Every structure is written in structure tokens, then in C-alpha cells.
Amino acid sequence: MASLADELVISPLASALPFGATVTGLTAAQLEQPGIRRQLNDLWIERGVLLFREGESSQAFHLALSRCFGALEAHPFPESRQEGFPDLVKIKFYPGDGSYYDVGGELRGGWLPWHSDLIYTHRINRGGILRPVQLPASGGETGFIDRIAAYERLPAQLRDRIEGLHVVYHVDVDMSLQGFAGAGPAQLLRMAASGTQIQRRKFSYPRVIHPMVYTQAETGRKVLNISPAFAIGVYEDGTAAGDMLLRELVAICTDAEFSYFHRWQADDMVLWDNWRTLHCATGVPIDQTRVMERTTIAGDYALGRRLGLDGPDADFDV
User: Fold this and answer.
1) For residue 160, what are the domain limits?
2) Phi first, then psi: what are they for 139, rounded to 5°?
3) Per the domain annotation, does 69 fall within a domain?
4) Would 200 be classed as within a structural domain?
5) Exposed (0-12), middle (13-18) or buried (19+): which is 170, by Cβ within 10 Å?
6) Average pLDDT for residues 226-247, to the nearest whole number?
7) CATH number, residue 222
8) How buried is residue 88: exposed, middle or buried, by Cβ count under 10 Å (0-12/13-18/19+)?
9) Which end of the chain has less neighbouring CB within 10 Å, N or C?
10) Are 130 and 192 within 8 A, CB to CB?
């Protein structure tokens, strides 16, 4: 029989939130137990976002915990990888380097609107775990939204309308150019050195499409599968009507009433299901530093396709 020390300590992520859970006091020894790993995976599928707090926290533990949920892969942009650690992405803002924006009259370093990671590729990753390395004195929260709950908020008529439709995405790391992000006016004032390199070659990446709705295989629940950032329109309707439909869906999906914003503590780690959730970064004052490391958990839900002049890749019925 397992001892109390071998059992997971689980609580809600926040009161009345329809997703998320907090796992307290997790240790490396627990990760060695197949039953604990199965329980963590089941909890992740059920709740979508897991906060690990007041347990072990180090770069090695970060990697070990991430591998409980799948194989890791390097980020497709070499500039985003942590030097010497290809399985880690370095997310950083320094006063001397990093993208910052004027967002509604406020300067924000490292600001990112609502998005799904790697949605601009045809093979989006399964998830990731984020861990702070250096936190700012203020700001720097990470927001999460559950797209299963978002789908359930859609009127029946709108659910029927979007079944079988797809969204087109492309690479563009200038967040001020994200026309469907719904964040209000944002002006890029400085691009990070790494972002500038990616932006120079953005036209070398193909556009991709992903379905607006897909079904979570493990539970049968439907997901409103849209990412406001990186979206450029509805594949089946490139007119103003298609744009209006996508904006309507984004407004429902990103309703602030149903979001969770995480205020980081030094040893926190947060895992999210990238096929199910959106996340964003509120940014930091531009005189402060924020450094985070993130793993990329590999996977492919096999529903995305590259777009060429002749349409999407074969074996994709639209």
C-alpha cells in the first residue's frame, strides 16, 4: 500500500474555475512511480493546466517532470533554444534586449497576446512546462484559458456553423500585427534580437490550417480550436464575413471572466495542454528582467496541414 508521502496532494487551481489543478509538494522520488505518473497524466487530460508548487524545482527536475508526459523536442526556431539545453526554450526580457510594446498606452516588455504554441506549424506540440529563472519585481503573469469550456459557451447555432471550418495561420513574431488577437491597439517599439532573425525569414515558412473544432480523444469533449495570435482568416471564407466570424469566436473564447492569470513564485512550474488551452503573457515594466525556461512536449493531433498554391496537403478533406 502506498504511504501518504507517495500520494499526490491535489487542490483546485482557483475557486470556481472550470479547469486546472494544483499539485503540492511533488518530489523526484514520486516521479519514479508508474502509478503517480499515470495519475498525473490522467489529471492533466481532465484539467488541462497543472500548477506544481512547494515541491522540488530545478532544471533537472523540470526536464524529468516534463518527460512524464511525453518525449521532448527542440523548438523549431533555433534562436528560442536554451544554449546547451536543446530541450529547453529560453523566454526572456532584459532592459537591453527583448521585444516591448505600447499596449493601450502602457509599455510592456515580453508581452504576448492569447495564443497556442506552434499553431503556425502543421504539427502543434502536445504541451509544455514553464519554470521561472528570474522573476521581475512586478508584472510577468501568465494567463490561461480553457477552450473546452469556451466551446461549451457557444450558442448551438454557432457550433453548427463552424463545424468543418478551418483557420489559416502563419509565422509572424511581431505581436502588433496580430489582427485577430483582440488585445486593442499595440505598437511594437523594439524587437528582440532573436525575434528579428525569425522575422527576417518569416516568408520562408508555409501557411498552415487547423480545424476550428476538434474532439479530445480521451474524453470525447469538443475543443474550440482557435488561436487569436498567428491567425489570418477562415480557410473556407476569406471575405469580411469570415473575418467577422473569427472575431466573434475570439471574443467568446477570450472572455476575461473565464481566464486564470498565474502570479509566479520562485519554485513554481506550470504544465498546460497546448491542444486544449490558450495562454498569454502580460509583460513586465521595461526596466525589469524576466527569464523563464519552457519545455516542449512532442505530439501531433494529426489535424493540421500545410498550405500550398494547390491547397492543403493531401489526405485532408475540406
Assistant:
1) 91-312
2) 75, -165
3) no
4) yes
5) middle
6) 97
7) 3.60.130.10
8) buried
9) N
10) no
For residue 73, the one-letter residue type is E
Beta bridge partners, 106, equal: 103
Cα–Cα distance measured from residue 264 to residue 242, given in angstroms and rounded to the nearest whole number: 38
Q: What is the pLDDT of residues 68-113, one digit of tens each?
A: 999 999 888 877 877 778 899 999 999 999 999 999 999 999 999 9
Q: What are phi and psi of 177, to 5 degrees?
A: -100, 10
- Neighbouring CB atoms inside 10 A of 230's CB total 25
Question: In a 3-state reduction of DSSP, which class is residue 47?
Answer: helix
This prediction has a pTM of 0.94
Per-residue burial over 155-166, b = 16 or more CB atoms within 10 Å of its CB, e = otherwise = eeebeeebeebb
Number of independent structural domains in the chain:
1
Q: What is the pLDDT of residue 122?
A: 94
Residue 5 above 60 pLDDT?
no
Closest CA to 114 of 69, 80, 150: 150
Residue 293 lies in a domain: yes
**Does some domain include residue 143?**
yes
CB–CB of 141/269 below 8 Å?
A: no
List, in sequence order, every residue forming a beta bridge with 284; answer none if it has no partner: 109
The residue type of 287 is D
Cα–Cα distance measured from residue 85 to residue 91, given in angstroms and rounded to the nearest whole number: 13
Report the candidate in 182, 186, 163 with the shortest Cα–Cα distance to residue 252: 182
The C-alpha cell at 36 is 503517480
Query: Minimal CA–CA distance to 169: which of 160, 178, 158, 159?
Result: 178
Closest to 113 (Cα-Cα) out of 145, 152, 157: 145
d(CA 82, CA 311): 36
Strands 100-103 and 49-53: unpaired
DSSP bridge pairs for 285: none
